[in-house]
Amino acid sequence: MLSTMPRIGFGLWKIPREDTADAVLEAIKAGYRHFDSAADYGNEAETGEGLARAIAQGLVKREDLWITSKLWNTFHAPEHVEEACRKSLADLQLDYLDLYLIHFPIALEYVPIEKRYPPEWLHDPDAAEPVMKRASVPLHQTWMAMETLTEKALVNRIGICNYNSALLHDLMSYARVKPAMLQIEAHPYLTQERLIRLAGEYGMDVTAFSPLGAQSYFELNMAEAGESLLSAAPVMVAAQTHGKTPAQVLLRWGVQRGTAVIPKTTKPDRMRENLNIGDFELSAVEMAAISSLNQNRRFNDPGAFTEEAFGTFHPIYD
Fold this sequence. Notes:
By secondary structure, the chain is of the alpha/beta class. Helix content is 38%, strand content 10%.
């Protein structure tokens, strides 16, 4: 099995179910070995189909792959953590995960798998006024249950997503099995320099989701057209200088500052393009110019989308 996570992964968020198995197979053919999944993405069964097809065709062995999945909010109670993990393993057709993350520091009331899966955000979508339903589950209890997954060899490493600095300090005060990974939104409009530095001081690696910025959020009406980083001047200048695309420059910026990146696409030519960032290096001046674009602009903010979409005001960032 892989001892370190490949720095460029294939993100599975928002890939339609009907396209997922083929996309995973094509990504493996393109050279991807790191796949970032989650129960909430709703396509883990199809991801498993793609992985199984690739292994059956001899394109790759299980031990050559790094597979990440995530614990959804409704499974935070300790008695439901293993249940959720085993469901992801069954869907992905795997015996173990390389990495399992707490998806959000948000505990919601349990929804049985046989009732609705994935449970998503609303407790009862058919209610007259559907809302999120918070659960009284301390994060330290969820983490202790995550630790037992490593003892049972269901997962090799555990970590967290969408935590802030205060939650990292708190987690490190009680974690018996230390988190291997922090996954956060990070791109030139949201550089998160202090949080990334803190994670490093605690020995955590960092994965940047939405490394291209607004691109994933246009169709969700969570970003304006003018917010695209692909047309930002420092990015375009660097792309022209190195003979690369703006997307390649953004991914190179993410990797060069020490984070892993997990872009997503269903297009084979774009898959290969996103992987092809190892043959150039951004200068210190270029890195600084791109970093100076920072606006602390967060596209994936529960404090915004939970109220608008799910009738519940639930910020986790100040």
